[in-house]
Amino acid sequence: MGRNKYIETPEKLLEFWQLYKQEVKNNPRYKYILSQKTGEMVAEPLERPLTQVGFEAYCYRKFGVTIRHYFDNPDNRYDDYSVICTHIVNERKDDQIDGGMVGQYNSSITQRLNGLTEKTESVVTTSISVLNLDPLDDSKDNLLT
């Protein structure tokens, strides 16, 4: 007999994602900067990016459920969730990549998180010439001078 899933339907997982997005986008982080006009420290709001670990932490904190297995799909037990999981992954990546491209998020971190780093390959070839000298043959001493 199969076990019940903590998140009963793919639509419920999508609902959790929508709630996570609202919480992240409605609760910015703040960076404190010195105001050139007043000389006081002023809070500058910074939009937070959507992240997989953030979504997982949110689901556990708010609903008491772990969601990693819905995305990993061990033994194909969560096939019916794959379309929603793909949508969530794509939307998360889109938020991070767009934010990195416009300078809203750190672009190098965004690239690494999404596997977008440029890969280069270098090939180095060397050759070594060996001069065989007979230490007992005096005639080859002249080659070194």
Describe the structure.
There is one protein chain. Helix 1 crosses helix 2 and helix 1 packs parallel to helix 4. It is flat, with a radius of gyration of 29 Å. The model has no long low-confidence stretch (mean pLDDT 87). Strands 1-2 form a two-stranded antiparallel ribbon. Strand 1 and strand 2 form a beta hairpin. By secondary structure, it is mostly helical. It contains five helices and two strands. It has one domain: Topoisomerase I, Chain A, domain 4, CATH 1.10.132.80.
Topology at a glance:
Blueprint: H1 10-26, E1 29-34, E2 41-46, H2 52-63, H3 68-72, H4 82-101, H5 107-113
Antiparallel strand pairs: 1-2
Helix pairs in contact: 1-2, 1-4, 4-5
Keywords:
mainly alpha; single chain; Topoisomerase I, Chain A, domain 4; 145 residues; two-stranded antiparallel ribbon
What's a concise summary of this model?
The chain is mainly alpha-helical and 145 residues long. The protein is 42% helix and 8% strand. It has a two-stranded antiparallel sheet with strand order 1-2.
Radius of gyration equals 29 Å
Question: Which class best fits the helix and strand makeup?
Answer: mainly alpha
Low-confidence residue ranges = none
Q: What fold name stands as the CATH topology? A: Topoisomerase I, Chain A, domain 4
Q: Note the beta-strand portion.
A: 5-15%
